[in-house]
Amino acid sequence: MKLAVYGKGGIGKSTISCNLSIALARRGQKVLQIGCDPKHDSTFTLTNFLIPTIIDTLQSKDYHYEDIWPEDIIYKGYNNVSCVEAGGPPAGAGCGGYVVGETVKLLKELNAFYEYDIIIFDVLGDVVCGGFAAPLNYADYCIIITDNGFDALFAANRIVASVREKSHSHNLKLIGLIGNRTTSRDLINEYVSHCPIPILEVLPLIEDIRVSKVKGQTIFELAEKNIELNYICDFYLNIADQILSCPEGVVAKELVDQELFSILSDFYLKSNIKTNKKLDIKSDFLII
């Protein structure tokens, strides 16, 4: 099974991807996580260092694929999760989609792409072009990370559109949304009431998760020394169990931009009127 993890930039995709990779490994799966970001830090909390990228390795070998071995590009991380960083083109030049394609091509030539039960593509930012959508070409399912705010849900809606577009060419489905770092989910619920998508989990804002990333470790690794953190691991294990249940998935129809804005702003206004909260729609709605 191949999963592509998408969402607004800074929403916590890499943190969720790393912990989800471990959760799936704990369920007996052989897991490969592929970071698709020029920062090449997707797998940092799994390996505790910035591993060399596919592009760096190819350049060092003068793009002679025959001179590259699996151990040159695949690194073992915590809980035996395999890690690859695709890297990216120089700033302002090239296409990230090309880099993802070269990564998959190399893994296939090394007979490594089909050795895993689960492959997770951790993809940077929003889908703004075909390059950003490239990992969807190789995925069976897409997972969208969001929070309870307009910007993240707007990005989620664009990702829904990308999944629908890619589903015309191969069997790609949307497995569901994961709410992240949010104490409420009313806007998420309002969105999925108009664009029916499963909600896999909603993770609250937990300081220990932030601390784990600062320490360069996953929450599972920290929980080995502090069993009180096991309840956080259960969030990720719950998501893993839902994924392994082989859900049917959906191909949803995205909302038109103006429709999305109207639905969420109207809902936000009504909910604040009910609670008699004073708000400035020009400021409050834009920062939720």
UniProtKB/TrEMBL annotation:
Subcellular localization, as worded in the UniProt entry: Plastid, Chloroplast
Reported cofactor(s): [4Fe-4S] cluster
HAMAP family: ChlL_BchL
Protein name: Light-independent protochlorophyllide reductase iron-sulfur ATP-binding protein
Catalytic activities: chlorophyllide a + oxidized 2[4Fe-4S]-[ferredoxin] + 2 ADP + 2 phosphate = protochlorophyllide a + reduced 2[4Fe-4S]-[ferredoxin] + 2 ATP + 2 H2O
PANTHER family for the chain: LIGHT-INDEPENDENT PROTOCHLOROPHYLLIDE REDUCTASE IRON-SULFUR ATP-BINDING PROTEIN
Organism of derivation: Boodleopsis sp. H.0758
Pathway terms, separated by semicolons: Porphyrin-containing compound metabolism; chlorophyll biosynthesis (light-independent)
Cofactor: record remark: Binds 1 [4Fe-4S] cluster per dimer.
Species classification: Eukaryota, Viridiplantae, Chlorophyta, core chlorophytes, Ulvophyceae
